[in-house]
Write a structure and sequence with these properties.
The chain has 414 residues and is an alpha/beta fold. The chain folds into two domains: 281 residues, Crotonobetainyl-coa:carnitine coa-transferase, domain 1 (Rossmann fold, 3-Layer(aba) Sandwich), CATH 3.40.50; 83 residues, formyl-coa transferase, domain 3 (2-Layer Sandwich), CATH 3.30.1540.10. Helices cover 39% and strands 16% of the residues. It is built from 19 helices and 14 strands. Strands 6-2-1-7-8-9 form a six-stranded parallel β-sheet, sandwiched between helices. Strand 10 and strand 11 form a beta hairpin. Helix 1 packs across helix 8 and helix 8 packs across helix 9.
Length: 414
Amino acid sequence: MTPGTVKPLEDIRVLSVTVFLAGPFLSMTLARFGAEVIKVEAPGIGDPIRNVGPYAGPKGISPDRQTEDDLSIRFLKRSEGVKSVTLNLKEPEGRRMFLELAKQSDVVIENLSPGSMRRMGLGYEDVAAVNPGIIYCSIAGYGQTGPYKDLPAHDHQIQAMSGIMDMNGPADGPPTRIGFFVGDLVTPLYAAYSILGALRVKEKTGQGQYLDASMIDTLATLMFMEPVEHVVAAGRTPRAGNDSRDDITGLYRLTDGDVIITVGGEDRWKKLCNALGADDLLNHPDYATNAGRQAHVATLRREVQSRLGQYTCAEGIARLEAGGIPVARVRTLPEVMDDAHFRERGTLKPMLRYGSDEPVDPGIVSGFPIVFSGGELPKLEGGAPLGQHTEQVLGDLLGLDRQAVAALKKGGVV
């Protein structure tokens, strides 16, 4: 281990057959921990996200490719530290070579349509036959089993089918999609620590196993951390927009912006009234109990709005903070992008092209949100051009020389 660098997975090799977002994000997450991640892509085509603009290249950012060196910004955001190898898995020789690579790997991950890898003879059973210790993880919208498994699914459909859209948005408005690809991004995190758990089991038993990750199941486990079933049983809408369903926690408009506060509970109710000088609310018999405040929550929100609304954000925040009320101003994305907090902690960092230390402008990639006291996670290379590592990987792992790789390329195998 390099001094000052933390590489928990530096002895782990991952074979990745992944496209779009969920699988690539899992690949990048494992690479961040020091794993060698080899992304297997179709020759001449690659991950379809490579062909979705905008693109970054030597001439800057453009909606369309300006040079052969341009790479999709979406691909750059999802592929740091991942090697690119081209291999035609529809050809017998490509499949044979994949299994040879799998023999020398610890983990296989894929997020193709359910059953795709199995139909090519590259499913878990096929890989386990040549490498019984393999950890094989599949990610799909609905998982590999169940009545919905064959339905096409991107994050939009998963948010709709999971019910999470029914929870999101104002109570008197339509169901609303969460503004980023939550199913595509949280499922790989579940998958990552499941892979770590499976590797731990393998250390003890020598046995690998199959992991079936489902985006819709992931969202269901998150949603029902809240007592939503009681809301539904009572015949209430689960949508509450920016507010709490049961108390005056929520969003308030001040003279120069919005703030969001958290109340909840008797103690904070009293603190809020004191902070706003609202003895009339504190002593009002209708609001003396939690049940009473729930019954009159709409009226109370209007009362709080009328009192808070006279202040600027700075004034209102100072008053509430002094009173012990959790509060934050609602910031814009440009404000967040410019916040030094994220740069100092490595949460957000400049986007780099492969082989370059010059940042793409504007361009941000997400770092890792946990800080290790033992050192920094490894600095990763930017997303690689298609097939960048084919010759190196096939040479190192399969013993093929340059001429052999060239012949395979001419034959459409790599």
